[in-house]
Amino acid sequence: MLCLGLLCLGMAVTSAHAEAVSGQDQAITLSLATEPPSLDSMQATDQIGSFLLSHLMEGLVQYDAEGNLAPGIALRWQVREDGATFWLRKDARWSDGEPVTAHNFVFAWRRAVNPQTASQYAFILFPIKNAEAINRGELPLSDLGVRAVGDYRLEVQFERSCPYFDKLTAFMTYYPARQDIVERWGRAFAADADKMVFNGPFTLAKWVHGAHLRLEKNTRYWNREAIRLQVIDFPYITSDTTAQYNLYKDNRIALAALDAGTLNDAVKRGYEARLFDFGTLYFLEFNQRSERATHNLALRRAIQAVLEPSLLVYKVLGLPGIKPAYSLFPSGMRAYGITFSEQYPPPAIDYNIEKAREYLRQARRELGEIEPLTLLVGDSPRAVNEAEYYQYVLKQALGLETRLDQQTFKQRIAKMRRGEFDIAAAGWGPDFDDPITFGDLFASWNDNNRGRFENRRYDSWVAKAQSSADQETRLQAFDRLQHIISEQVVIIPTYENVGMYVQHPQLQGVRRSLFGGDPNFRYAWVEP
Amino acid sequence: MQFHADDFNALPAAPVEQMEALAPAPPLWRVLLADVRAVVALVVVVLLVFSAFAGPFLWSQDPARQWLSQVSSGPTTARTVAVVEDNPQWQGALVQAGQLMSVSATTTSVKLAWPAVAGAAGYRVYRAEAGEGAGLGVPLAQIEHPWYDDRLQLRERAYRYTVVPEGENELSRRATITLTPALTIGRFEAQLLDLPVHNGEVVLPAHPLGTDSLGRDMLSRVIHGARTSMLVGLTAPLLFITLGAFYGAAAGLIGGWVDNTLMRIADFVVALPFLLFMILFRVAMGIESGESGLFPMVLAMVLLSWPGAARLVRGQVLQLRGSAFVLSARMAGASNLYLIRRHLLPNVLPLLLVSLSFAIPQAIFTEALLSFIGMGVVPPTPSWGSLCNEGIRSMLTHPHELIVPAVAISIAVLAFNVLGDALSDAMDVQIRRGAQ
Amino acid sequence: MIAYILKRLAYGAITIWFIATATFFSMHAVPGDPFNEAKAASPQLRQNLMARYGLDKPVTEQYLIYLRNMLRGDFGISFTQENRQVNDIIREHFPVSAILGVAALLIAATGGIIGGAVAAHWHNRSPDRAMMIAVVLAISVPSFVIAALAQMAIVRANDWLSFPLLPVAGWGGISHVWVPALVLGLGTMAYLARLMRSSMLAVMQSDYVLTARAKGLSDWQIFRKHQLRNAMLPVVTELGPTIAAITTGGFVVELIFAIPGLGRYFVQAIQQLDYTVIMGTTVFYGAFLVLMVVLIDIAYGLIDPRIRLHGDGR
Fold first, then answer.
1. pTM for the structure as a whole
2. What fold is seen in the domain C93-261?
3. Chain B nearest-CA residue for A394
C-alpha cells in the first residue's frame, strides 16, 4: 500500500516527455548538467545559472545573433573617461507587465555590492565608483556611483577609467532586479519559478528541483518578434555525458555534449560532430612564495622546457579540437577586431630535455636538495589523467619527484589560496570580451593570483592596459604581459579547451558564445 | 539442562584432554579438501594473492610507464619502429589524391596540404577511419590556412581525411584522401622513455592485455591493482575481526553492566549508514599530497565494521559459559586461560574464519566502489576500482579497459565467496558430526 | 509489549543522537571551508558568509544550535544551493530514492524468495544449480559494472529495435524505474535467495514437515502451510539490513542512471563541502534506518511468539 502510494506520488509530478524538437510547436527539449544553484542574478556564479539567466533576463546591452554587442534594455550608450550614460528603451516590460526602469538597475547593482548579499561576483562591479569600499562595508549603499535620472536614464560614475564598461553590463551580475519582488520573498527570492520575474525573451514556467525546468516565451519581452522558439524544456538533469548522448540518440534531446567515449559512436553513426571554442585557458601555476622550491626561476625553467603541451594535448587528452596553449591569452581572443595571437604571436619556448637538465643542475646549486614537489590537481577524470602525465614526465625527464594532491574543486581553491602547493593545475575562463580579463590575473594585487607572483614591470603594464583608452598602447601592453609570463615562467599554459557536441539537424540558429551564457537559443528556431 | 546431584561430585583424576576426546570431529581442513569447489576457490585465492605480491616480479613492466604513442591500444606484440622528428619538414614520400596531398604520413604526424579555394572563409578538416561508413568523421580543426598537421592519437590504420571549404557549395568542393600512417615514435617521446636507439629504430614491448588511456600496460596495472585491492581486502577484515573478537570476548567474559554498555556502543556503530560514513570519514580525514588514501580507507572500514565479529564472539562466549561441558570442565578445576584456549578458541575460530571469508570480498567490493566514485585510493596508486572508473569512461570505444579490471574483481570476489560457502558448509558437517 | 516498544524507540532516539554527533564532528574535521570559489572572495565577504551561516561561533555552540534545530526538524539552509532549505531538498529527493528503493526491494524480495524456494524444492538438481550459479555471479560482479552493462544493453536494444523501448537514463515515467531498481536489487535478491534456500532446506528436514508428510498432506499444502511461512521468518529478520543496503547503495545507481535521488545529492554535497546538506542527509538516512530496524524488530516480535517481549529482544 505504502509503496503504491509512493509510486503514484512520483509519477504525478512528471508528464510524458516530448521528442527532441517539434517544428510545429517551435519547442525543443534539452538536458541540464546540474540544477542551477541559484537563479538570483546578483548571486549566481555558475555556468548553468548564467546560461539560464541569459535567456530569462536582459541587461543594458546584449549580444546579437552574430555575437556582436547590441542594444538590450539600453537603446544607446556612451562610455567616457570618468563615467557612462545609458538611455533606456521605454517599451521594455517585466513578465508581470511592469516597465523596466533605471531604478531596477540601481537597485540590482546596489544589492550586488551589498556586503550582506555576499555576492561572489561583486568584484565585477568594482569599476563603479565606491563599489569596492561599499562591498568592504566602509561606505553606505547610497554612495554607489550609479543613479537614475528619471525612469529611463542611467548615469554611472567610474572609480577609475574603464574603456570596456559597456561589455561588462552584458554580464549577469549587472542584470536589473525588482525591489518589490526581492523584498517580498527575502531569502527565498529566485528559489522557485513563482518567486521571480523576468525581463528577457523567456520566462521560467516550471522548476521541479533536481528534475525538471521549463522555459516558455515571454510574451511581454520588448523584442518578442525576433524570438521564434516557444518552449525550451529541460526534463533531464544529468552531468553524465554518456547519459546525455544516449538521450540524444533516442531523439529525446536536441543538443548533447560529446566526450572521448561518445564521440566515436557519434562518428560511427555519421552524426556531424561540431567544435566550439570555450576560450578557456588551462595552465600550471607555480607557487612563488619564498619558502617554496618553485620560487626558484631555474627550476621553473627546467619544468617549462620538458612540458611540451602538444604531447599532452594530442596523446593524453586525445580530444579533437583541443589546442595546445603557448600564451596567457587564448589563441582565439579577439580585441579591436583582430585576433590577438595572429598580430602578437606567443613567445617561443625551446623544448629540450638536455637544456632542462642544465636548468635543473643550476636550480640544485641554488637550492640544494629539492624535496618532492606537490602537484595540486582537481579530481575530475581528465584532471587526474593530466596530472599523472605531468608526474610521469617530470620523473622521467628530470628525475623530479612529485606528489599528487587530488582535491575537490573547493578544497583545491582553498589550498591554492593558502599557498599549500608547489604546482597547481588551474584554469581561467573569460568574464567579458577584453584581453584584460586574462591580463590582470597575475597583477600583484589580484586575489586570484594564487601563486603570489609579484613583478613591478608586470603590474605597471597591467595598470597601463586597464586605464588607457588607446588601442595601440593596450595591445602593446598585452604583448608585454604574455612575454613576462613566459620569461618568468609564472604559469605554463597547457591547453585551450574546446567543446564537442552534436545538434539536431532541424535545430538552427543556435549561437555558441563565450560571453553572456552558452549556448544561446535566443535566435534559434526549428526547421519544419 | 538438568543436573543430578552426582554431576557435582569430583571426577576421577584423569587427564582433562583424554576426557574430552570423546566426540572427535573431523578436522576442518579435511572436510574442506573433500569439497571440489572449495579446492578450486582456494587455488584461485592463493593464485590471486600470489600474483598480487609476486606478480610484479614475473611481469616486470612498470605500471607507471606511459607509452604515449600507443594509448588505449588492444593487445600488441613487441615491435621495432622508427624514431622520427616531432615536427618533420615538409619532405618525403608524397601521396596525392585529387586536390589533397600528404607527405610521409606517420603516427607521429600526418601533414596535409591543398590548394587554396577561392572564396572560402576557412576550412574544416575531418578524419574518419576507413570503412567506418560515409560520415565525415571526427572534426579535427577549423582553420583559415590551406594546410593542416594532424597529430591526434594516430594509429597504424587507414584514415580518410576530408577537407570542407566553408562557404557556398560546401558539398561539391569537398576533397578526400585515404592513407595509412606508418607506426613511429616521436623523438621527444623516445628521449623521454630513454629507449636505446639502433639505426634510428627502437623496440616497443608487448602488451598482452593492451594499454590504458595513458598508454600504460594493462597487465601490469591489473597486477599492481590487485596489490591494492588485496591489501585493503585482507588487512581491513583481519583488523576489524580481530578487534571485534577481543571486544566481544571482553564483553562476554566480564558480563554485567560492562557487557551491556559495550554492546550498546556496538549497536550504535551498526546503526551508522555504512557507505555514507565511509565517504564522510574519508573526506574528514583528508588525503594529504603524496598519500595513497589506503590508510584512511582501512581505518574507516575498521571503525565501522568491527561490531559484527564482536557480537558473534560475545554470543559464543555467553553460550559456552552456560554450556554443560564448560561447567564440567570448570568443575574439574580448569583455569580461565585453559578454558579460552581449549574451548573458546576452537569454537570461535572457525566461525571467525567464515566471517573473515565473507568480509574479504565485502571489503574488496567496498574498496572498488569507493575508488570507482573517486572516494577511494588516489592516483597514481592503481586499484581495481579506480581502473574500472577509468575504464567506464571509454566503455563504448575501448571496452577492454573496463572489462579487464571488472573481471578481476569478479573472480576475486567469487573465489572468496565460494570459499566462504564451502567453509561454512564444512563447519555444518563438522558440527553435525561432532554432535552425533 | 508496550514497554518493549518504548524501550526500542528510546534506544532508537539515542542512536540517532549518536549518528548526529558523529556526523557533526567528522564534518568539522574536514579541511577547507565551503566558501571557496574560483573567483576570489575578499576576506570581508568570507566573513559575511561565515556569519550568515553561523560558522563564526565556537564549535560547541554550533553543536548545541545544530542539535536544537534538529530537534525541531530543521536542518538549515544549503550552502551551495542558494536559498534552499535542506528540508526541502530531502522532501523533494527522498521520495525518488524511496520509490527506487521500494521497487528494488520488491523485486529483490519477490525474486529472492521465489528463487530460493525453487532452488530448495529441486535441491541438488539442475534448477538449484543454475540458481546458485546465478546467485554467486550476482554477488560477485560489482553493482557499478552491472549498472554500466545494463545501460549499454538498453542502448543496444533501443538501437536494434530502432525505437526507444526503455529510457537510458533520467527519471519520470514508470519505465525509468525498472532497470535501475533491478540493478539495485540484484545483490540483495541473490542474498535473499541464498538465505531462503538454506532456510527452506532446514525446514524441509524438520520434524513437523516430516510429520505433515506422514499425515498424507499434499506437497502444495505442505509447501504453503508449513514450509513457506516458516522458512520466511529468517528472511524477514534480514529485511532491516537489506533496506539499509538498498537505500545507501542507491547512490551509485542514481549517479549512473542520472536519477535525482537523495544519494546523488549526498555525493554532490560531499564534493562541494555543503555542510548542512551532508549533515542533514546523513542524519536523515540514519534516522530512517534506525526507525526501519525498530519497526522490523517490533513486527518480528509480533509475528514470532517465541521472541521474548522484553528489553533484551536480541
1. 0.72
2. MetI-like fold (1.10.3720)
3. B192
